[in-house]
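Sample 3 of the quickstart, ligand 2'-deoxycytidine-5'-triphosphate:
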Amino acid sequence: MALRMPQARRKRQPIRHRTMARDRPTVYVAGMSPPAGQSDHEEEEADGLRKVIHVDMDAFFASVEQRDDPSLRGKPVAVGGSSGRGVVAAASYEARGFGVRSAMPSVRALRLCPDLIFRKPRFDVYTAVSRQIRAIFLEYTPHVEPLSLDEAYLDVTADLKGIGSATRIAEEIRRRIKAETGLTASAGVSYNKFLAKLASDQNKPDGLCVIRPGEGAAFVAGLPVRRFHGVGPRGAEKMARLGIETGADLAAKDLAFLRANFGSFAEYLFRAARGVDLRQVRANRPRKSVGGERTFFEDIKEPEALRETMDHIVDVVWERIERAGTRGRTVTLKLRYADFKTLTRARSLPHYVADKAEFAAIGHALLEDLMPLPQPIRLMGLTLSALEHGESEERPAKDGQLSLL
Ligand code: DCP
Ligand code: MG
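Result:
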């Protein structure tokens, strides 16, 4: 298979939108299924039209590794574990040319790309870059809502520098990120968070896309539904069986139909299909939980695979808990079945979870209680809540819904 170089994929006409189908990585950042506040009205609604920018670093972990080790540049690189159980966290665009994707088992990635170079993640470096880009964002607006280390929403309706044009601000931010970190970011500009996030993905890598007022519904109509956050490969297959391939197909279904087929996911899908999203960009949301979840490349059911996944999630989430410097008493397991039914099981302790071993033991106990599972799952998540107060400031804004390694 020919190696597709990033230059070949780069689009040089930034300020426009395309409605073409485009292959998405098959794993979705957790927390987008549906995004917090989309379906449960937990957030205040934005009043009037806003100017929202979504900034997302390109192949983040992999790009940092290529930046710091010139011998990796232009090569297929994966960050993650290369051993039997390892999973790809990030894939360079060169690796993506071979079909390598985030969350893919490393063994499979190596089959697709035998020359794939693996590097272990260096979270301290990624966190430092994350701080740098956040400092840049904050020069333009105090309304910065980080979603993970490498992406954030910015509300620039009234920007601090008086620039006025969200598109100009987005270009300036991208230039500054490049100059100050040596890394590229893509940005989406629109009038709500849902559209801005779709837009940032549109012309990746190193791209910009603007969806102007009035263009949102048409933009969404032309997209394949797998580009909607939370609609993974299985979800897209299910929709295809129901005759839903694009946003327009989805918009043609009424809420009752969506509820019958997608349960609590229906409201989110209904709004998204219309390019509607009333959530505000919210900085400094008080953190109520720390956690993470994973959507799988392929649905899983085998007890051994489920246990391995639990181990992996515990590793990532516990690291996050330590980084946040917080403690909590309640552990919640979340599973989403192949048919989208989602269930949670929680256990609360009289004391704070003492250490990683205890956290793992509770996670596994919650999982074992549910086995054998009635059907394969497409997502597993684990969250620590009932936190003690006084968390660190360096917390992402999405409660328990962060992307997982
Ligand atoms: N990440 C992870 N596990 C996943 C997805 C992502 O550990 N399942 C980590 C590695 C990524 C970083 O988070 O580098 C950012 O995730 P993105 O989804 O933004 O993916 P990338 O930045 O790698 O690629 P791009 O945004 O260019 O598609
Ligand atoms: Mg990214």
